[in-house]
């Protein structure tokens, strides 16, 4: 049900404001996912799609996937999906931002009954460094608190505005 909420919210973003500037992005970096007394440190990637409604406010949908890691002989995978508000400090060439939203984390340990889905909150801090009008580099630290699970992400990537 929440996945459907995320999808509908994301699809409705361009309809909410005729002046919205939409963007997509991809980034990679170091990630940690901790659940059920198991912690994985890995690399991973994040895909983001968003809409900026005015110079300081944007809404983003993101999906982060951790690389598959072998823990105690079992393959361990994790992912985090989030819908968040982004508060920016507009500037020329450098735009720091704060993130706050809702998230869902999924973990999967091969051959285990400890697989789980957790809901919680995401928050973070970062900055976009403009290359030109349509593209920026993004550096971000994000933390997701999922009740019995937690995920941290330090990533670097690119954003393309259209």
Describe the structure.
This protein has 162 residues and is mainly beta. The protein has a single domain (2-161), classed as Porin. Helices cover 9% and strands 71% of the residues. It has one helix at 2-16, and strands at residues 21-35, 38-54, 57-66, 69-71, 74-88, 94-109, 116-130, 135-145, 149-161. The protein has an eight-stranded antiparallel barrel with strand order 1-2-3-5-6-7-8-9. Strand 1 (21-35) and strand 2 (38-54) form a beta hairpin. The longest helix is centred in the first third of the chain and has 15 residues, at 2-16. The two termini are 30 Å apart. The relative contact order is 0.22. Residues 14-18 have low confidence and may be disordered.
Order of strands across the main sheet? 1-2-3-5-6-7-8-9
Biggest sheet layout: 8 strands, antiparallel, barrel
Q: Distance between the terminal alpha carbons, to the nearest Å?
A: 30 Å
- The succession of helices and strands, N to C, reads HEEEEEEEEE
Q: What percent strand? A: over 45%
List the uncertain runs. Answer: 14-18
User: What class do helices, strands and sheet pairing give?
Assistant: mainly beta
The CATH architecture designation is: Beta Barrel
Question: What fraction, in percent, of the residue positions are helical?
Answer: under 10%
- Which fold name fills CATH's third level, the topology? Porin
How many DSSP-defined strands? 9
CATH class label? Mainly Beta
| Count of individual helical segments | 1
The overall number of domains is 1
User: What Rg is obtained from the alpha carbons, in whole angstroms?
Assistant: 16 Å
